[in-house]
Amino acid sequence: MTTGCIDAVIETGQASALPVRVWRKSSAPRSAPLVFHLHGGAFCQGSFASEASSTVPELLAAAGAVVVSADYPLAPRHPFPDALRTIFDALKSLQEGRARWAGKMSRLFVAGEEAGGNLAASLTLIARDQHAPQLDGQILLSPMLDPCLATRSIRRADAGPAGCKWADGWQRYLGSPETAAHPYAAPSQASRLAGLPPALVVTAQDDPMRDETLSYAARLRESGVPVTQHVLPAPTSWPESLCGADRPQGSWPAALLGQFIQFFADRAALLRRPASHPVFQA
Question: Per-residue pLDDT tens for 188-235?
Fold first, then answer.
């Protein structure tokens, strides 16, 4: 069983189509989960074409999904909400034409790491508020959620409001300080999280985004959203090893693959249960 990729585009109704890279296993069935993936890079860097950005989509594809990884518009040329508008249009197009990418009955997920985790979380808020598209799950890996950069894990990483790539990324993405209060720009600021799709939330002991990730997972859970949470043991060098220049080292890729496999299996099992026996209540 081999995992391969091809380049394609998604029509978004805007001036130009969105470039994407599609990852899938040769043995993936037509009913495989369909995952819309968003790479990291502190909102300003990264591309599906970079070797570093292939780690997460490769693992998702190895877990049995068809993965559509987007080359979304980057800041500062495209500040908030440019990227979100583009990828939300792409997500709707992906749902409407899912038979082209996977199968008519494929379940639709969003996933992202670091800045891509922010965008994935924001997509779930917009999709809930717009009542479409219907998402079966969200996968957030070391997501950038808190523009204040005030958590203990961030401070221990010697990161803060100035002089680090995440601070610079937030500034370039938000454009102005007041934008930080917008829930679609910074999901940690959202006052209403009920009604979002089930989440797989993963961080690591040595992840600077650990505290904001766990805080968001706790708020999702308190809002009635089913959450699977996992903290990987150090060292992982997250989020750098998720979207940095070097290929990942250590045991965390295998652990993350296992989390993906289990999450997809759990979602499939829940959807097969009779409607008269609900498992989760919003």
Answer: 999 999 999 999 999 999 999 999 999 999 999 999 999 999 999 999
**Residue from 89, 119, 83 nearest 243 by CA:** 119
How far apart are alpha carbons 73 and 68 in whole angstroms? 16
At position 258, the amino acid (one-letter code) is: G
Give a yes or no: residue 278 inside a domain: no
Distances 120 to 58, 72, 141, 199 between C-alpha atoms, Å: 18, 12, 10, 11
- For 12-35, the DSSP string reads -SSSSPEEEEEEEETT--TT--EE
Q: Measure the CA angle with vertex 170, ends 228 and 93; round to 5°.
A: 60
Rg of the chain on CA atoms, in Å = 17
> Please, are residues 136 and 108 in contact by the beta-carbon 8 Å criterion?
yes
Please give the model's pTM, rounded to 2 decimal places: 0.93
Residue 104 domain boundaries:
3-271
Per the structure, the count of domains in the chain is 1
Is the bond preceding residue 79 a cis peptide, omega within 30 degrees? no
Confirm if 93 and 133 have CB atoms less than 8 A apart: no
Residue 139 maps to a domain: yes
CATH number at residue 231: 3.40.50.1820
